[in-house]
Each structure stands twice: as structure tokens, then as C-alpha cells.
Amino acid sequence: MIRSVVRGFGAALPKRVLTNREMEDIVETNDEWIVQRTGIRQRYIAGEGETTASLGEAAARAALDRAKLTPADIDMIIVATSTPDNTFPATAVNIQARLGMHHGFAFDVQAVCTGFVYAVATADAYIRGGLARRALVIGAETFSRILDWTDRTTCVLFGDGAGALVLEAAEGKGTIADRGVLTANLRSDGAHRDKLYVDGGPSTTGTVGHLRMEGREVFKHAVGMVTDVIEGAFNATGTTADDLDWLVPHQANRRIIDGSARKLGIPLEKVVVTVDLHGNTSAASIPLAIATAAGDGRIKEGDLVMLEAMGGGFTWGAVLLRW
Ligand code: UT7
């Protein structure tokens, strides 16, 4: 059977780092509160000329280099983002143009913080369905541009960045020993749509709007939802937490990450954590974490890797893959 195998990974961050200390000059907050409640120590903020598409392009080029491929080898681009450069066209076609590609097809996926998990699952389905052979899957965000910088309950949490994977069709045996995406488990429940949302949009206010979140409500649901989809992915493949080499969680909050790992019996040494460096970069957080841990040699060929996320909608999901 056809499997979607990771051939390359890449990441891009804005130049400007904003530390918790600097945050103290913007809103009534302090480093201790932010570190204790979230694990975040700094985040990157896009400056002039840096956009979701420019960061996504840089991450894509890094992933292509790593895969020893060029844009000519790619036939599909999927971008997970909630902060597109324009309402339309899709950021994916913007990146397609920046890469000088006139062939293939490109589109965006919008599932907020779960966007990258949805995008990998989508790319895998297209590849296995024979619609594409090589895909660039990008998570890219500039959440700093939709934050209310007077609201301390949200503005300290988020940051900007992008990450990308190259997925390629490869023949597998159909067992869990295969490299590539082994299973995906996606969920959403729009009943929770008002707990984490943006209070504007083209069809309602005609404005971009600002991010609003009932943090405690999101927190309350996060661990249960995340562990449910991970257990679903384990059950679908006959694997267990003991088989896992790496858990790469969405990087929203250290307490959610630790709580989920503990509930699943996954030791913290097997969990990739970058929330301290990047803050919550929504759909970019998982590919940024992957690029960090694969880049420093922790994630190696043959490793069993679980990706998981939960976010606005609510949406939540997990992807199990062999690197
Ligand atoms: O990526 C999508 C998913 N999103 C998330 O996963 C976010 C989930 N939620 C969270 O991570 C946490 O709920 C937060 C980090 C947002 C908040 O942590 P918490 O432990 O739930 O704190 P809280 O909202 O219960 O607030 C505790 C106190 C409040 O003061 P009072 O009412 O107890 O006097 C807040 O006003 O902390 C206060 N507070 C702050 N203090 C200093 C809220 N924000 C800040 C701040 N600095 N930035």
C-alpha cells in the first residue's frame, strides 16, 4: 500500500524575540506568572515585511533543501493557517507563487491550532488516493497580528513562526513497521466555537478582529480531548504508549502537555517541548517542534512519532507516523 513518508522538514521564525520581561512593559503581567502558568519564556513576533506567506515560504525552502528536492518536484501545497496574508486567495497559492511553481495545486486548511494535524491527514489522504505524489505541508502563523495587545489573558500566550514537511508517496507493506503516516484521528465539535475565536471576519464585521479566549474553559477540555484521540490512534494501529519514541504535542501550555503525557503514561523524556522558546504558534507549533527535535538528532529514521493538537472550534486530532 502507498504510505506518505517524511522526506524533509524545515522551520522559520521572525527576527524579533519578545521576552516575558519585555511583556511586562506592554501589559500588567510578570515573568513568574507566565512561566508558572504556561512554561512560555519568550516568543517571536513578525516585523515589517514578515508575513504568514513569507515565513511559510522560508520553512518550505528549508524542508525542500533537507529533502534534496526543488519546487519542480512538488505537486501539492497545503498550508494550515488561521492568519492568512489575505482573506483570499489562499496563503498556499501565495507560497506556490513565491516558490516559482506554476504546476500542481495549493490550498489552505483552517482548523486553528489543530491545523497542522488536519493538513498532514489531508495530504496523506490525497497521496494515498493518488491525487498527488509529493506534498509540501506547511503550518504558518502570525498570531501577533490578531492579538488584543491590551488583553493580558491572551497576548502573553501566542507567537509567530512556520514549519514545513515534505511528504512523498512510497510503497509500504501495510504494517506498522512501514515508514510514513500510519493513522490519523480527527475530531471537532462546534458547540465550543465561542470559547476560542476571533471576534471579526469578512462576512460578519468586515474586519479582521481579535482573538478572544476563555482560557480556563479551554484548559478544562484540553487534556481529555487530546488523550482520547491519541488513545484512538494507538487502538487503530495496535500500538501502545510503550511503542512510542516521541510525542510531539501542540505547544500551547506546558501544564497541558505534561498532564496529557502523564495520563497516557508517556515519560517526559519522550515529549518534545518548545513552548518555552516559541510560545503558542497555533498551526505552526507542531512543525516547529518537529524541526527542532529532528534537527538536533532526537527524532531519527524509524522512530514512532505521535503528533497531537487541540484548539479553536474546538478541533482536536492526532497523527501517528513512523519517521
Ligand atoms: O492553542 C489553543 C489552546 N489554548 C490553550 O491551550 C490555552 C488554555 N488555557 C490556558 O493555558 C490557561 O487557562 C491560561 C494560561 C490561559 C491561564 O491559566 P489559568 O491557570 O487558567 O489562570 P486563570 O485564567 O484562572 O487566571 C488566574 C489569575 C486571574 O486572576 P484572579 O481572577 O485569580 O485574580 C487572572 O486575572 O491570573 C490572572 N492573569 C494574569 N496575571 C498575570 C491572567 N492573565 C495574566 C497575566 N499575567 N498575563
TrEMBL record:
Quaternary structure (record) = Homodimer.
Asked whether the keyword Lipid metabolism is assigned, the reply is yes
Designated name of the protein: Beta-ketoacyl-[acyl-carrier-protein] synthase III
| Region called ACP-binding, residue ranges | 251-255
**What HAMAP family does UniProt report for this protein, alphabetically?**
FabH (MF_01815)
Query: What pathway is this protein a component of?
Result: Lipid metabolism; fatty acid biosynthesis
Recorded hits in SUPFAM superfamilies, A to Z, give: Thiolase-like
Q: Give the enzyme's EC designation.
A: 2.3.1.180
Active site per UniProt: C113, H250, N280
Keywords from the UniProt entry:
Acyltransferase, Cytoplasm, Fatty acid biosynthesis, Fatty acid metabolism, Lipid biosynthesis, Lipid metabolism, Multifunctional enzyme, Transferase
Name the source's superkingdom: Bacteria
- Cite the Beta-ketoacyl-[acyl-carrier-protein] synthase III N-terminal domain residue spans from the record: 107-190
Spell out the reaction equation it catalyses.
malonyl-[ACP] + acetyl-CoA + H(+) = 3-oxobutanoyl-[ACP] + CO2 + CoA
The main location class comes to cytoplasm
What is the organism field in this record? Answer: Ferirhizobium litorale
The Beta-ketoacyl-[acyl-carrier-protein] synthase III C-terminal domain covers 236-323
Q: Which Pfam families match?
A: ACP_syn_III, ACP_syn_III_C
Q: Name one GO molecular function term.
A: beta-ketoacyl-acyl-carrier-protein synthase III activity
Which CDD domains does this one have? KAS_III
Family of the protein in this entry? Belongs to the thiolase-like superfamily. FabH family.
Checking Gene3D superfamilies in the record gives:
3.40.47.10
Enzyme type, top EC level: transferase
Q: Where in the cell is it found?
A: Cytoplasm
One cellular-component annotation, GO = cytoplasm
Q: Where is the signal peptide?
A: none
The job of this chain, per UniProt, is described as: Catalyzes the condensation reaction of fatty acid synthesis by the addition to an acyl acceptor of two carbons from malonyl-ACP. Catalyzes the first condensation reaction which initiates fatty acid synthesis and may therefore play a role in governing the total rate of fatty acid production. Possesses both acetoacetyl-ACP synthase and acetyl transacylase activities. Its substrate specificity determines the biosynthesis of branched-chain and/or straight-chain of fatty acids.
